[in-house]
Amino acid sequence: MLKLKINPLLLECGTDEAGRGCLAGPVTAAAVILPDHFKNKILTDSKQLSEKKRELLKPIIEEQAICFGVAHIMMEEIDKINILNASILGMHHSIDLLTSPPEFIAIDGNRFKPYKNIPYECVIKGDGKYLHIAAASILAKTYRDAFMEKIHEEFPMYNWKQNKGYPTKEHREAIRKYGITKYHRKSFRLLPEQYKMDLINIRK
After folding, report:
1. Would you give the end-to-end CA distance of the chain in angstroms?
2. What pLDDT is stored for residue 194 in this prediction?
3. CB-based burial of residue 197 (10 Å sphere; 0-12 exposed, 13-18 middle, 19+ buried)?
């Protein structure tokens, strides 16, 4: 059973991100503040749930949360500041969107940067331990998946609707065949042999 939050007496948000390991698309972060009476037997780490269950939980979280925020950090920014900094920036932006400022921040993972002098704690595998972090993981994942499904229509040959930009064999084969797009992260090692290849064409 997941715990509600770290500090029972404080207005506490959970935050998480999705898409750090992808070759294309944004990294997406979410922050969620849940009410003290919130309960849900299904809610856990988004990676442990089917797409159907994530889509089922998304409106429940949005309706029952005190407030939530979701932010995309796009590919150009990822390439500029690196994926770790982009993930933390995304979390900061998602917290910016909360209509009730949190008194404490619970972060999934082990890296964060201070946000407006608000105390915080990093929790390894926090999305499997705390409901508000799990809720943030669901929103980050579902919003990012929706973004990838939208850009799939523009470049269907990469099958982002299915692989969501992750480095699957199919995705890498498409990069070999068609080159890269404006949605690919150019600072990432897109192909194992990338550094031996001539510069591949960038599709506009």
Report:
1. 48
2. 53
3. exposed
Q: Which residues, in sequence order, are bridge partners of residue 115? A: 118
The burial of 137, by beta-carbon neighbours within 10 Å (0-12 exposed, 13-18 middle, 19 or more buried), is given as buried
* Residue type (1 letter), 94: S
Which tokens is 65 given?
Answer: 């949360």
The rounded distance, in Å, linking the Cα atoms of 137 and 61 is 11
Enter the tokens of residue 44. Answer: 């856990």
Q: Which two tokens stand for residue 89?
A: 């920036």
Which residue matches tokens 């998480």? 16
Q: What is the mean pLDDT of residues 46-50?
A: 92
CB-based contacts of 69, cutoff 8 Å, min separation 6: 30, 31, 93, 94, 95, 96, 97, 98
Q: Find, among 145, 143, 112, the residue nearest to 126 by Cα.
A: 112
The pair of three-digit structure tokens given for residue 7, joined into one six-digit string? 């500090």
How is residue 37 written in tokens? 């009476």
